[in-house]
Amino acid sequence: MPDFASDPDGLDRVADRFEGLSEDSTKISEYWANYAIPLTRQTGKGLPALALPSLSELTPGVDEQSRALKEHIGTVETALRETARLYRRSEQQALDEVNTIWNNVPQSDDTDGRSSGGLRGIDLPSDETLNAAPEPIGPGLWKVSVDIVTALGDIEAESIVISWIDELLGGVFGEKPTEALTEWVTGDWEALGTVGSVFENFREYCRLMPRLLSDATKAVGTEGQWDGAAKEAAFDAMMANANRVDGLADIWNDAKISYENWQNIAYVLLSEVHGLLITVPAMLVRGKDIVYKAWDIPWTVMNTVKGAFTGENYLRQLLEELLGIALSILALFKKCVQTMFYVLQAFVALCSFIPLLEGSTDLDRAW
User: Least packed by Cβ within 10 Å: which of 162, 190, 220, 273?
Assistant: First the structure.
């Protein structure tokens, strides 16, 4: 089949589309800088403020992905412009050189391409996937945190009646456990929910990009009016180049799944903390009854006299029961604090693990 491109300017126009898609790849870094990096600047003692700074570990990988994707698509733009230049110079001389050019474009073994259906009106993937701030997704950790704060308020209302227990627990913890737990659950829990949305938006961006690249590839025959053996080789190379971007979508899909797993575990653990805390008021009510009995002088005298004959120490029994309640509450609060710490540790571990998911992609880049 004779090889020709009757409109080299058309090939340059197709190259412009690839240039636009290549430049659009920088939107990944921009979106991360605009919406993820600010989350790492949270301040305070609450779990969200302690956890979110760990996201900064992902920043180098995100920037590298954005840069390498730009370069990957840029190879097609460069090849198209060089092809147009060669066709302007000499059709016959260009054939072998064009084939050499397209052999240097990064490709994959999958040359089937993909459908570009449903893309009408979409020029850049960022227009569709990175055009709005991320929204909180996943189980409502913020709702559970509100439930915990409410339970702590109920505890504080009861503990005023037996303030010595509160002081005892405060002496053991260094601060009152109700205050310590309240600090853990304060902060911007909805911000934690947006992390998964960022991952999801990046995944959808990287899924849409190869479809747009394939759509632009089809224009080499129509807009560039290119036909022949070299065109077929270039077309296959461009389709394979587009297919290789799928590896980036896999990275962000894995990141989102890992984050969702953390969210679900955190929801279960925080719900467990809430379940433990709502048992405390009943303990405090029992403690209050014991205090009232101890201060009921006639009742205390009567039982003390009775105990003299039965060998029982009435006041000692009351104090032992009261101390047992205090120790039970102490153990419960200790478990609650440990659980909150586990949730924090899991998030930090998640942010350390996600970069390992990058490993290698179909782009054969060291991310």
Answer: 190
